[in-house]
Write a structure and sequence with these properties.
With 342 residues, this protein is of the alpha/beta class. 35% of the residues lie in helices and 15% in strands. The protein has 12 helices and 11 strands. Helix 10 links the parallel strand 9 and strand 10. Helix 1 packs across helix 5. The longest helix is centred in the first third of the chain and has 17 residues. The chain is globular and about 65 Å long. The termini are far apart.
Length: 342
């Protein structure tokens, strides 16, 4: 039996994308133990998991803060006596952890993020727009380097625990009709569909009988979503109100989820909910598309300048965000309806 530290500290979407790979490996190697090292706020994603997967919470705002906290973290991880380290993050913290255990003679492997080909994809001139390795493949390569060859067999987190509707019954009563989730925000401006256009989608869905719209987001984003809830009778704002565990449960009962290129796309993918996603400055070819999502459900403009960013964090050099502002609401609605009519 071997014990493997698996490091992926953040961000939400990247950690969620690790789940299908980690769980597939764990199921195929039941005699080994896998300890995921990730930030404390993300623990709720892993309520349901294989029995040989555990989570070590990193408290970057408390005892693991700063350089001193890093060494506290390393000492605590050393006490777990791992046999190998799978670095699925490749940041400063994970580098120090990996080097520490390498000095002790432990095996280690680190992710290849593919930065050169991503830079070639996003440069202004002579773009090389090709389909790159997905994050799932890159994570898989890390495990393969450690001898864990595997196939992606993951389907849903509810293969590892009960799905109990009673836990969300109080949000909207029994499920009657169509349930649609909408998560209109993302971390960066280059990934957010104009909110006035998203509101048009809410209005269109609100006018449909037997349709309930759940509005997802963080506590900081809830003010706008609550204003939509107050104006549209079939809209329910759950932003900032639910734990990851409850949020995933609710998502699993949705008929479709509308998201940006964001963490919510990946959360919905973990519960096998079909996602219609809007793409602006970023592109699915960079490898961050939702697990087993239909590529046709990525709504995007065919512009010469796309993609201009891997993460959507660069300002639009055209100054107009045409990739998002130019996307018709009708195009997004058509894709939602296609999913609902299947």
């Amino acid at each position: 039996m071997s014990r493997v530290l698996v490091i992926r500290l953040s961000a939400l979407g990247d950690v969620a994308m690790l789940v299908p790979v980690l769980y597939s490996v764990a199921v195929q190697y039941p005699e080994d133990e896998f300890i995921l090292v990730t930030k404390k706020p993300l623990l709720g994603i892993f309520t349901l998991k294989p029995s040989n997967v555990s989570v070590f919470p990193v408290d970057t705002k408390g005892r693991h803060r700063g350089f001193k906290g890093l060494w506290t973290l390393i000492r605590e991880l050393a006490a777990l006596k791992p046999d190998a380290v799978a670095d699925a993050h490749k940041v400063t913290r994970s580098l120090y952890i990996r080097l520490f255990f390498h000095a002790l003679g432990k095996k280690s492997a680190v992710i290849d993020k593919g930065k050169p080909e991503k830079q070639a994809m996003t440069r202004k001139k002579n773009k090389k727009l090709v389909r790159l390795k997905t994050s799932f493949q890159r994570y898989g390569d890390v495990f393969s380097q450690l001898g864990y060859s595997h196939t992606l067999t993951f389907d849903t987190i509810f293969d590892f625990g009960e799905r109990n509707f009673s836990e969300i019954r109080g949000l909207a009563g029994e499920k009657n009709g169509t349930w649609v989730g909408i998560a209109p925000f993302a971390k960066h401006r280059g990934k957010i569909y104009p909110l006035e256009k998203t509101e048009e989608i809410v209005i269109s869905l609100d006018n449909r009988p037997d349709t309930t719209i759940f509005l997802f987001g963080s506590k900081e984003e809830s003010e706008l979503l609550k204003s939509w809830e107050s104006r549209y009778p079939h809209a329910i704002c759950v932003a900032g109100n639910l734990s990851f565990t409850t949020e995933l449960l609710l998502m699993s009962y949705l008929d479709v989820m509308l998201t940006m290129d964001s963490g919510n796309m990946h959360l919905a993918s973990l519960v096998r909910t079909p996602v219609v996603s809007v793409w602006g400055a970023t592109h699915p070819y960079a490898g961050f598309y939702g697990y087993r999502q239909d590529p046709e459900n990525a709504v995007q403009s065919d512009l010469f300048c796309r993609p201009c960013s891997v993460f959507g964090d660069k300002p639009c050099y055209r100054k107009d965000y045409a990739c998002l502002n130019g996307l018709p609401v009708e195009m997004v609605m058509a894709r939602i309806d296609k999913v609902l009519n299947k």
